[in-house]
Design a protein that fits this description.
The protein has 272 residues and is of the alpha/beta class. The chain contains 7 helices and 10 strands. A hairpin with a 2-residue loop joins strand 4 and strand 5.
């Protein structure tokens, strides 16, 4: 696996340098230290289409410190999901450097990228993508079994994580026997069962009604704090976005900060 020989290169910020701040009254105010978990410099992503090259990103920069909870908003097609895919070693950039959890993810082989994701990244999608033929407990245990952990130990650990997402009594249920909110909570437990450093969530509440979405987001916030996660969430739900420490808008291939925890909170309608 490729890792920087010393510190990752200093990248221009999409937002100002986060200062260390203690937990406050806000539910997402975990202690933040000046140790970037995500550091992106000069990111470019180009797709070849029938009409020629499509430049999705151009000189995009991003830095996320350990412990931060950051929301990314923007219009459909702006590249929010693609950016998460690159950070999570599911896609590769056309230009620039991408360090995630001290690893140059753009330099990983396919096998190294899979191991990196299993070890360092928790990924939650808009749709839960649970395996329908397996129980909730077995679905949560899958990433551990992929590590060749003994099945008994993997299931024991998965059971603890089902308790973390308040589904300890649903372990023997298959996905089709669970509500939409329960399925997404199982997916969250699966994403975190390997205790990753970084949580990437792509519209994690987008397929849920407002009430259920709020409860799932409450759970994400609680797990973010209690497990010392660094979290990046893509969302169209502005009421949820403003609960994050920072909100960044992706547009025209670049990120722009539109609020942080130290500024006056924006109303949902102001995010655009």
């Amino acid at each position: 696996m490729q890792t920087p020989s010393a510190a990752a290169p200093q990248a221009p910020r999409a937002a100002r340098e986060p200062e260390s701040r203690p937990s406050g009254n806000s539910s997402n105010q975990s202690t933040v230290v000046n140790s970037p978990v995500v550091q992106v410099q000069g990111l470019g992503k180009t797709y070849q289409t029938a009409r020629g090259a499509l430049n999705l990103f151009e000189d995009l920069n991003l830095e996320v410190a350990a412990g931060e909870m950051v929301a990314i908003v923007g219009q459909s097609g702006a590249g929010k999901s693609t950016l998460l895919h690159i950070l999570g070693a599911l896609d590769t950039p056309s230009a620039g450097t991408v360090y995630c959890a001290s690893t140059n993810v753009a330099k990983l082989s396919a096998r190294e990228a899979a191991a990196f994701r299993n070890r360092e990244i928790g990924y939650v999608w808009q749709f839960h993508y649970l395996l329908p033929e397996f129980t909730a407990l077995e679905n949560v245990a899958m990433p551990l079994l992929a590590r060749n952990m003994r099945k008994v130990e993997a299931l024991r650990t998965a059971d603890k994580w089902l308790s973390e997402v308040e589904l300890e009594d649903r372990g023997d249920h298959r996905p089709g026997e669970l509500s939409g909110g329960e399925q997404q909570r199982v997916a969250l437990a699966r994403a975190l069962v390997c205790e990753p450093r970084l949580l990437l969530a792509d519209e994690p509440t987008g397929d849920l009604d407002n009430s259920t979405a709020g409860r799932v987001f409450d759970l994400i916030e609680r797990l973010h704090r209690s497990h010392g996660l660094t979290s990046i969430l893509v969302t169209h739900n502005m009421d949820l976005a403003v609960r994050c420490r920072r909100v960044l808008r992706l547009g025209n291939g670049r990120l722009t900060e539109i609020t942080d925890a130290g500024s006056k909170p924006l109303q949902a309608g102001n995010l655009g």
